[in-house]
Backbone:
């Protein structure tokens, strides 16, 4: 990664503290240091004014660049001081970059994200609407049902159990295969990044915390999230598929809400999307968008043409081209060779076809 001085790191953290819109552990300098350690090719472009750092962009790649940590990074952005007139194109000029593809950059008009801001679990629940109360009533019935049929539900917050960690990774990879989604955990750099963040443990200022639900002695659900101690970003979530009738993921979510203030979390971030179970939990939302920034070059021209075709054909194809672009961006970030990317695309779409046939 671009060599950063201790003064740069302090200034980076100061920029984060100056703007609540940048409140996410994905923007922490330690995260991008570890991304570079395990994936390689990390860069940080800095912008100074009168010797003062006013903005920076962590990124990876070459002519076709991407945000640092993509596709694992659920939030990606240019980090800048408030009211600073600076954009991604400005920072990448002169960097031999033709196109910068992103999937989760803040915007005023995009996909909503789900955030729970809470200081007290009882007060948070009291402020929820009737839909949530019905949802909670159903969850409590399932808790009693699990206790009667499997074992008493119990949670372990900030678990250090390696067996639970490895089982979560197995569940998640099986889910990727079942849904036809690209398995980002098959990339050794991605899996090593997650593992080191978890191995840092609860005392680290940036880490991955693992929260676990058991029914008796049986592992039921896990949630591995990136955290700076203040914001917990739910990241890798999985559950025993044979226990789905008991909604173990929801049970774990409710337990996490109860435990969050004691752990130190003021925010639980469930990431992009407000559909499904997430609609019951959101207290605040932000908006993120995917797209591309192009610069004068052959790579920029190619990316620009695809972007124009995507817009022009949206009325006929819906988001099909956008899904293809996002899928390829995921694969390209994890597969350095063209042959590997081609095979991954074929496998991904083959799995999708089989799923639709079933």
Residues:
């Amino acid at each position: 990664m671009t060599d950063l001085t201790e003064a740069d790191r302090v200034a980076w953290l100061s920029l984060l503290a100056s703007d609540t819109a940048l409140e996410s552990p994905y923007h922490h300098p330690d995260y991008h240091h570890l991304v570079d350690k395990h994936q390689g090719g990390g860069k940080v472009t800095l912008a100074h004014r009168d010797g003062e750092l006013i903005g920076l962009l962590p990124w990876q790649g070459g002519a076709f660049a991407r945000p640092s940590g993509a596709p694992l990074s659920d939030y990606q952005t240019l980090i800048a001081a408030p009211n600073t007139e600076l954009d991604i194109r400005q920072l990448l000029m002169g960097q031999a970059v033709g196109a910068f593809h992103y999937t989760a950059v803040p915007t005023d008009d995009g996909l909503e994200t789900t955030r729970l801001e809470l200081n007290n679990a009882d007060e948070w629940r009291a402020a929820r609407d009737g839909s949530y109360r019905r949802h909670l009533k159903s969850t409590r019935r399932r808790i009693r049902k699990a206790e009667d049929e499997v074992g008493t539900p119990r949670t372990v917050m900030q678990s250090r159990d390696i067996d639970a960690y490895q089982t979560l990774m197995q569940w998640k990879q099986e889910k990727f295969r079942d849904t036809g989604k690209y398995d980002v955990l098959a990339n050794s750099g991605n899996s090593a990044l997650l593992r080191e963040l978890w191995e840092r443990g609860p005392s680290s200022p940036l880490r991955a915390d693992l929260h676990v639900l058991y029914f008796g002695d049986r592992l039921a659900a896990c949630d591995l999230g990136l955290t700076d101690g203040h914001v917990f970003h739910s990241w890798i979530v999985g559950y025993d598929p044979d226990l789905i009738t008991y909604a173990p993921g929801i049970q774990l979510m409710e337990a996490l809400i109860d435990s969050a203030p004691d752990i130190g979390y003021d925010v639980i971030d469930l990431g992009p999307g407000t559909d499904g179970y997430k609609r019951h939990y959101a207290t605040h939302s932000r908006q993120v968008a995917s797209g591309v920034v192009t610069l004068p070059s052959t790579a920029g021209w190619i990316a620009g043409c695809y972007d124009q075709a995507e817009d022009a054909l949206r009325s006929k194809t819906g988001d099909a081209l956008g899904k293809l672009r996002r899928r390829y961006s995921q694969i390209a970030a994890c597969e350095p060779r063209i042959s590997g990317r081609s095979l991954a695309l074929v496998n991904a779409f083959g799995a999708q076809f089989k799923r639709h046939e079933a």
